[in-house]
Amino acid sequence: MTGDSFVDEALLKRVPRWRDYLEAKLGFRNHWYPVCFSREAPESEVKPVKLMGVDILLKRIDGKVYAMRDRCIHRGVKLSEKVECYTRSTITCWYHGFTYRWDNGVLCDVIASPNTPLIGRKKIQTFPVEEAKGLVFVFMGDEDYVPHPLSQDVPPTFLDDDMSVVGAAYTVGSNWRLGCENGIDDLHIYLHRESPLVPNTQRSLPLGHTDRPDDYFLLHEAEGEPKGVSTRTFKDAAPMAYEGSVEGRVVVHGTKMHQSPEEAAKKRTTGHFIAVPGVLRVDNFPYVGRFQFEWYVPLTEDSHLYIITIGKRCATDEERAEHEHEYVHRWRPVSLEGFNNQDIMAREALQPFYNNDRNWLEETLVREDNGIVHWREVCHRASQGVQKPSDVS
Amino acid sequence: MTGDSFVDEALLKRVPRWRDYLEAKLGFRNHWYPVCFSREAPESEVKPVKLMGVDILLKRIDGKVYAMRDRCIHRGVKLSEKVECYTRSTITCWYHGFTYRWDNGVLCDVIASPNTPLIGRKKIQTFPVEEAKGLVFVFMGDEDYVPHPLSQDVPPTFLDDDMSVVGAAYTVGSNWRLGCENGIDDLHIYLHRESPLVPNTQRSLPLGHTDRPDDYFLLHEAEGEPKGVSTRTFKDAAPMAYEGSVEGRVVVHGTKMHQSPEEAAKKRTTGHFIAVPGVLRVDNFPYVGRFQFEWYVPLTEDSHLYIITIGKRCATDEERAEHEHEYVHRWRPVSLEGFNNQDIMAREALQPFYNNDRNWLEETLVREDNGIVHWREVCHRASQGVQKPSDVS
Amino acid sequence: MTGDSFVDEALLKRVPRWRDYLEAKLGFRNHWYPVCFSREAPESEVKPVKLMGVDILLKRIDGKVYAMRDRCIHRGVKLSEKVECYTRSTITCWYHGFTYRWDNGVLCDVIASPNTPLIGRKKIQTFPVEEAKGLVFVFMGDEDYVPHPLSQDVPPTFLDDDMSVVGAAYTVGSNWRLGCENGIDDLHIYLHRESPLVPNTQRSLPLGHTDRPDDYFLLHEAEGEPKGVSTRTFKDAAPMAYEGSVEGRVVVHGTKMHQSPEEAAKKRTTGHFIAVPGVLRVDNFPYVGRFQFEWYVPLTEDSHLYIITIGKRCATDEERAEHEHEYVHRWRPVSLEGFNNQDIMAREALQPFYNNDRNWLEETLVREDNGIVHWREVCHRASQGVQKPSDVS
User: Fold this and answer.
1) Which residues make beta-bridge pairs with C99?
2) Hey, are the CB atoms on C393 and A356 less than 8 Å from each other?
3) pLDDT category, A214, cuts 50, 70, 90?
4) Going edge to edge, which strands form the sheet with A46-51?
5) Chain B residue whose CA is closest to C248
6) How many CA atoms lie within 13 A of A243 on its CB side?
7) Is residue B317 exposed (0-12), middle (13-18) or buried (19+ Cβ within 10 Å)?
8) pTM for the whole thing?
9) Which of A80, A85, A113 is the best mutation test for B, with the most CBs of B within 10 A?
10) Structure ipTM
11) How close, in Å, is residue A92 to chain B by CA atoms?
12) Which residues sit opposite B135 in a β-bridge?
């Protein structure tokens, strides 16, 4: 760390096209991040979460969730060491009685010093909160930055009225960027060849691709819309390799099913869209008609919160209940814990290498990794600010 | 760490009035510190202790305690890895037989090289030792600094002939300065409102203060006397708050007892005196006629030895025995472990914030914290030297 | 660490005669190091080892052992996270199917991207391997450095045809240099005075030496030969001290046996030879006619692999079997685990002091430590390169 950066300036200079991405060890500021599921923040309970190195407290009051930095302005102790809420709209520090309003963070009382002129003049940091699709989103922003709509920080379709979303969250021992890069990695299907998802969905799963057209990726950088990278539909775009050879001899097979084109189409992922600040939509996954939305939320330099959700368009409560039932009994055991757990293993295996900042320049990428490179560059161009040591100290 | 300092020079420059205090992560040199109770250093036993990052060995010989650095001059191993004392007045290193005299540290023999010219010419570092009131004090000083009397490094009255002192020691997971600042914190009584000490002593315990006169503190900086900060008597000096309000509504109460002024006076702490290098006297605490003397002795950057003693003026052996009995059966369980344990929790909660040197400049102090600021400034002006990385390496 | 060095340049400048040695925290490059016993690398098994901070994979194919860096060139994951060998001559990365040849490291296939032009053009780092006397040696070398013969990196006689060698390996929690220096330390016999080896071999064991001639050491620096330091024969060269005195009084005794000169000679170690990059031969140890060969192989900054072997000249299979039987039933329990374990304790006790680079300049050496100083200087002059942070990142 030199000055107020997590990464050495000399290294950053060597990647001018994705400099901010290399520096964003704890993520990008001025974005919406999910920090937990709505169900984890019931009315009146004070819930501690972490986001981008910062300790945060959530509390739901009359249905609305508020977020406040979990650190008393007086002498820096965590309010969550011993939660004291004397009134519904305030929280009081256990040490000297500094009391803050949940809605605006204003210091409204100091029990041990009731006449102090600080009252009404000082405030604790608060964060804008939104809820959508059963997730609590917090805006990690600069003081003078007016939060943009949540819709700019999630992939298209996520907020659609008929999109029903269910899921779970896992803490992963790798930097959040390795989560993103594993998520959009076109070649890592090889890793999943023995996932229980394959027989469960009767899915053909190749081992990789043999080629890919130059215009395979679309970059999204329009003002006021989600920034990110998407793929064109996979169909025909990338000839699939179902046989793996070593030294000219076939040694491993994908799981090519003998099925009609119509059947095959029902079991095929058709594309993905990754958006800043680190959220991926996979289309028709884990099954036709489902969308996997997953987030890689920076916690610390070497851990992220991996939120996996599965969305399905549902018109009725019955359909929604059916989708939830299917999630609990099929996708959670078979896909989240039988397919995405392999991704978790891979990200944690990447961490020791990329934990050394210099190694970001020591990779040997193949052409099919260009989606990852596009992603790094889009992040850099879209950057509204990088989380710095001074933001978390 | 830049150069030979634990703290960045740029930060130190920003607090010219208490610069040395910010730098003194491992305490101030050229002072007397208690390292253990006398009862923990019985005749002939070699006892390892730590002080300000330095490993030290104690040994009592004919009643007098000697202190020596626990590191062989030859190749730096700890003598305490395997204690070898062939004679009463020496200790021998287990590795090559380097043998030192306890009284002056002189290398008097080298068993594996009996003719080496180093004998008689080299010495291991030794430290002056004093005992008082059942505590062993070590002087952590520069080579050319003649130790001043112990009386300059303890609060007045501690060494009085009739002062009988008993107590215990606890290792606390915070820097020593947070121990001091919690100890003299006028507002943290709020934290103690549910301590068992309150009902036990029928003490009125406010939640805080509403105001305080400008001349509340006395600074002690006279040559040859203890340096520090004391309070004028509490009586009338600081109107007490027995009710805590949040948003205009009373939500928490102190424990104001209905008792005559004479009764109340018997249960009131009347003042405190904190002295360099980090020792506090609290008057009439935990009860009228008792004095709490407590030390915050630097061990490592993030731990200190919290020595708590209770003194009482005793004229006879019977009175002393009664005082000790009261300590064991009343004050230790009710006050040390029912009141001061709350202070330990608070200091350990302060540590993550103040562990980041920059955060010493990010506090939001109230007016009632000026006792803490006075303390920092007196320490700076009284400083005879700061423990540096090179002193402990 | 400043720039690409483990040690601060300002410190290195202060020891011009052994600068490279002080810098070589992870050892010297362009040398042969044993990494395991041959018996630990059976045919077809993939075995992970560590050498000088680098993770390495071994595989024996048709009797010959190959060594490859345990880090995929693509994105840096360890191949050993999940070993996949589809053919006898290759290993495949579990993540994307990057496949390397054991014999030359060439990327011969990428299962997930079978047409990538990287195939045949890129390679993973491989290391020359030699086997001798039941040990697997790896050459940690620069790309353009042609490995010299193994015979230059072991003490004379080790490779002799009739030398039969058996032994074991221990991981020790100290830097490798402390292993070397303890090994050749002339004074540390004091430490061993109560080893079970002494009564077992009826050996006279002094506590130290009283004097030593100036020409006691021989430096070996001839081109094409092992570089190192040896002693002249101990006999008469260094008068032995069998009594240890403190303050003029004898307090500890060596184990001087009453035996004829012929008997005594049979139980006497007669000299040692330490060679770059850190291997010691002790002559007539643990008994007459045996040679202890031991290595201190750098693993990490604060650990080394301590390989202890005992060699004996054997003319027949029967003699070899007898030597092995004696090793298992006598020398391993009595000498390796009853004598050398004391050395392990000593090295781990040295580590906290020498872990601070500055303390290498704070020793107080005696004249008898000049063997250690010769060793440091010979290493510096012989240095073909120091392992740097960039070599292990």
Assistant:
1) C92, C109
2) yes
3) confident
4) A46-51, A54-61, A64-69, A126-127
5) B109
6) 7
7) exposed
8) 0.95
9) A113
10) 0.95
11) 9
12) B37, B132
